[in-house]
Amino acid sequence: MAKVILVTGGSRSGKSRLAEQLTEGFGTPLGYIATAAAGDAEMAARIARHQQRRGPEWQTLEEPLDLCGVITGHDGYFQAMLVDCLTLWLTNLLLQHHSPEPALAEVTRLTSAFASLKSPLVLVSSEVGMGIVPENALARSFRDLAGEANQLIAAAADEVYVAIAGIPLKLKG
């Protein structure tokens, strides 16, 4: 079984940089599994900045929905894989299914695959439970889904980090 690491934190907390550094520690080649889609110019610019920060040793795979499939399909090819980010993946699933249950089933499918992985896996997820209670049902559903998913993945991960103001804190492992 390969090591599984979860990195969480708020927006602009430094979690992606931390996750990249942890992943690079496993050697090259590296797989970067992107769950975001460039829906507008601002998001395209964000994606471009992330790509520029990573070097040529990273191969980017874009997968907004079948995260488990792309991870298991590329397992053993890379020295390590990084998923950035689980929160956008959950958003994509929730918007596709209009219900959190199918998304949680995918989270369970993902955590079940951890035991058979050959390549180390680093997962990035936003911590969304430290804010106010959202005023609409979809936002509350997403917040609850993300919180439950983070708990399930943290329980199954070997190591868990949180990034706050660019400072990593190791919570588990």
From TrEMBL:
Pathway(s) annotated for this protein in UniProt: Cofactor biosynthesis; adenosylcobalamin biosynthesis; adenosylcobalamin from cob(II)yrinate a,c-diamide: step 5/7; Cofactor biosynthesis; adenosylcobalamin biosynthesis; adenosylcobalamin from cob(II)yrinate a,c-diamide: step 6/7
Cell cycle found in the keyword field: no
Keywords: ATP-binding, Cobalamin biosynthesis, GTP-binding, Kinase, Nucleotide-binding, Nucleotidyltransferase, Transferase
InterPro entries: CobU/CobP, P-loop_NTPase
GO molecular function, one term: GTP binding
SUPFAM superfamilies: P-loop containing nucleoside triphosphate hydrolases (SSF52540)
EC number annotated for this UniProt entry: 2.7.1.156, 2.7.7.62
Catalytic activity: adenosylcob(III)inamide + ATP = adenosylcob(III)inamide phosphate + ADP + H(+); adenosylcob(III)inamide phosphate + GTP + H(+) = adenosylcob(III)inamide-GDP + diphosphate; adenosylcob(III)inamide + GTP = adenosylcob(III)inamide phosphate + GDP + H(+)
Residues binding GTP, per UniProt: G9, G10, S11, R12, S13, G14, K15, S16, A34, T35, A36, E62, D84
KW GTP-binding (keyword) present: yes
Enzyme class: transferase
NCBIfam families reported for this sequence: PRK05800.1 (NF004469)
Function noted in UniProt: Catalyzes ATP-dependent phosphorylation of adenosylcobinamide and addition of GMP to adenosylcobinamide phosphate.
Protein family according to the UniProt entry: Belongs to the CobU/CobP family.
Protein's UniProt name: Adenosylcobinamide kinase
Organism, as annotated: Geoanaerobacter pelophilus
Gene assigned in the entry: cobU
